[in-house]
Design goal:
734 residues; 17% helix; 13 helices; alpha+beta; single chain
């Protein structure tokens, strides 16, 4: 991985290459889409000197056996390069080469070692990488128990041991038995008197593990927690105990409420392993926010902020009820937690009216930032770091009506903002090292793939840490524009327009819409680059989805966005296409049942009958019912309370109205939206004499050929482009 220290020099050469070598650029292809790399941060040392993360491409996620989804013993392939970067020098070191498969990764407290789990079929093994020696060593654990594939790594103070998850004796055999009984039989029994749906029972078993300390010198194992479901594990600074939450499922529920009990406990690391209750088991789950010493946690409940010590029996309310400014509007007295101060003496909270500093000793509340009232266009602000002196907030910034993004510094005493960076570029994942010495962030111009940067908190000294895709500068890529328009209800919406490569002003081009829900921020998109390289405009329009009547949103919003582009003289209104994946595929089929404006449509892994969909994906439990009743499908009622709403949002019910040639792409192993549901529209349209083609990828999952292997990925995109090419040019050929 090439490291570039001088950002100015990089930009200069990039510009020179763009101007001098444009004629030499080659087309961006499906093979290119597969090899574009991204970097994911795994951990950062407290002083920010080292960062460890994984480099992956789309090719690293191919060849999953989707028919084994839910199998407790299946480890799906997801290869990577594990990379250590020195953020002082910019030097990088590949700990694990490409095509390795790693699990959890974590720095030691002293920042001198990296612990990681490496999959060496059929087991995960624990390794420690010594940063100074640049060498890894395998920890040979003295136990027959195997490391869980989803194990985290928690270092103890002093860095002598790590806490990991192990599978208990008989776990693998029981998991295999449960999965085979559900998938292979020869007889499978589903019984409503059982507390869990069969696949929920399998999922519950997958979550079971034993927690144990591994001595890194000797490999000896000390079991700390018996087999169970645990989360939120941490060790306070004094190292005397382990704090954890326990999860005990009781039954399958359909309304996302109840059915599971949660509790928080502490267990002593002494020989007695004494267990203390912090929060007793109940169906109420609390989202905890721990201070730096891990001695106290804060949480919001019913709009109030509470703080609790792990050594005390009761929580203390620290937010006030009778602040003068909220007397006339009680909603302004509802608070959410934002941050602890670095010295654990204060909490930053947010209400409708602003940000509040809460002094924990006397519970004094001071409003440090006033927020505009009922302003939908006010920019999004999010705290990134709170300075040691409690006087400065570093906040990410994003405008809602234009591409203007960046990082701001807010002086609490003067109540003044200073722009550290604010421009049209795309910034993401602002992360400050624990000691406040430096800040990390992802950067893109909005069109190119993202790279990782590091800087001081004032953003004066910047360094690019990754250059993941230098070859892509020699490819023809799209550029983007933010489009504002009104839907048919007068609601202001935004969409992202992707220009065809080698765009000629004044010429009208075909348009392909990629639809889902709402879009605003741009960023590298492999799909829109493939569309742009085919010579088309790409467009990601937003819609205003309304609970109870979601099916109307796409006809109201997408067609209005298209009209805006036609008015601008950019688009050939006779050559319009639309596609989407999953919920977007569902939307594409529903949309063409309401309008014949499109010359071609494509549904990728999207349902077409929401009624049969309710029970059509057994491997994900009650998700399909809850999605319709209280989730993404937004129907808001049960099938038996509002049957007409389910009919009105099922494209297969209106197949007779579809005039648009329709391509349906599915994966035979799709556990999310089974291919058989999409297939219903194929049979309906064929029965009615409509033009429809159904392609089912036997090795595909959710995403059809895009979630299969490399050959299927390429085949799917060839079919997508060919489908548009055929129907955009049908009249020309005739």
């Amino acid at each position: 991985m090439k490291i570039i220290r001088n950002l100015t020099l990089l930009l200069f050469f990039s510009l020179a290459l763009s101007q001098a070598g444009r004629a030499q650029k080659t087309q961006f292809t499906t093979e290119d889409a597969i090899k574009v790399k991204s970097f994911s941060v795994s951990d950062i040392t407290d002083n920010g000197k080292f960062i460890v993360g994984s480099v992956r491409s789309r090719a690293d996620r191919f060849d999953v056996d989707h028919k084994r989804f839910g199998d407790p013993n299946y480890v799906s392939p997801s290869t990577l390069e594990l990379v250590l970067i020195n953020t002082d020098s910019g030097e990088s070191k590949i700990i694990l080469p490409e095509k390795s498969q790693a699990g959890s990764v974590s720095f030691s407290h002293d920042g001198g070692s990296v612990a990681y789990l490496l999959y060496e079929n059929p087991d995960f093994n624990l390794y420690i990488y010594d940063i100074e020696k640049k060498k890894s060593r395998k920890i040979r654990i003295k136990s027959e128990l195997k490391i869980a594939s989803n194990s985290s790594i928690l270092w103890t103070p002093g860095d002598e041991s790590v806490l990991i998850s192990l599978r208990d004796k008989g776990w693998a055999e029981k998991g295999d038995s449960l999965f085979k009984e559900a998938t292979a039989g020869p007889i499978t029994i589903y019984d409503s008197k059982k507390p869990f749906l069969k696949w929920d029972a399998i999922s519950n078993h997958s979550s079971l593990s034993v927690r144990a300390l591994i001595n890194l010198k000797t490999g000896s194992l000390e079991q700390i927690l018996p087999e169970g479901q645990y989360s939120g594990l941490l060790i306070p600074e004094d190292g005397s105990k382990l704090v954890f939450s326990e999860i005990i499922p009781k039954k399958t529920v359909y309304d996302r409420k109840g059915g599971t009990e949660y509790g928080m406990f502490a267990i002593d690391f002494s020989e007695t392993h004494k267990r203390d209750t912090i929060i007793a088991m109940s169906e109420k789950r609390i989202s905890t926010n721990w201070n730096n010493s891990k001695s106290h946690f804060a949480y919001a409940d019913s709009g109030k902020i509470f703080v609790r010590s792990i050594s005390e029996k009761k929580a203390v309310q620290v937010s006030g009820d009778t602040i003068d400014i909220v007397k006339e509007d009680t909603s302004k007295a509802k608070f959410t937690f934002l941050s602890w101060s670095n010295d654990d003496t204060h909490i930053l909270a947010k209400s409708k009216s602003g940000y509040w500093k809460i002094e924990l000793n006397n519970r004094e509340m001071t409003r440090v930032l006033t927020l505009p009232e009922e302003d939908e266009k006010a920019p999004d602000l999010s705290p990134v770091y709170w300075s040691d002196d409690l006087n400065t907030l570093y906040m990410s910034y994003s405008a809602k009506d234009k591409w203007e993004r960046g990082l701001l510094k807010y002086n609490i005493e003067n109540q003044e903002f200073t722009d550290l960076v604010k421009d049209s570029n795309l910034y993401s994942r602002w992360t400050v090292a624990k000691d406040g010495s430096r800040i990390f962030y992802g950067f893109s111009d909005g069109d190119m793939p993202e790279d990782l940067f590091v800087a001081d908190l004032e953003l004066k000294e910047k360094m690019q840490l990754t250059d993941l895709n230098p070859w892509i500068r020699n490819k023809t890529l799209t550029h983007t524009e933010l489009i504002k328009y009104l839907d048919s209800d007068g609601k202001e919406l935004y969409g992202i327009l992707y220009y065809p490569v080698n765009y000629q002003e004044g010429k009208k081009y075909p348009l392909v819409c990629e639809i889902y829900e709402s879009f605003f921020n741009n960023g590298y998109s492999y799909s829109m680059n493939l569309i742009a390289n085919a010579g088309y405009f790409g467009f990601k329009p937003s819609v205003n989805l309304i609970n109870g009547y979601p099916g109307e949103a796409w006809i109201k919003g997408i067609t209005s966005g298209i009209n805006k582009l036609i008015e601008k003289g950019l688009v050939d209104e006779d050559k319009l296409g639309v596609h989407g994946t999953s919920y977007g595929g569902y939307a594409a089929s529903l949309l063409v049942s309401q309008t014949d404006r499109f010359a071609a449509a494509i549904n990728i892994s999207g349902k077409t009958n929401i009624i049969s969909f309710l029970g059509d994906s057994p491997r994900i439990g009650t998700r399909n019912y809850s999605a319709a009743e209280v989730g993404q499908d937004r129907i808001g009622e049960t099938l038996w309370d509002a049957p007409l709403k389910y009919i009105n949002t099922s494209a297969v019910m209106f197949a007779d109205r579809i005039k648009t040639p329709h391509l349906l792409l599915t994966g035979d192993g799709d556990w999310n939206v089974p291919a058989l549901n999409t297939r219903e529209l194929y049979y309906a349209m064929r029965r009615l004499g409509k033009e429809v083609v159904w392609i089912n990828y036997v090795n595909g999952g959710h995403g059809a050929g895009g979630a299969s292997n490399q050959a299927d990925f390429i085949d799917q995109w060839e079919r997508i482009i060919s489908w548009y090419e055929e129907h955009f040019n049908k009249e020309d050929k005739e």
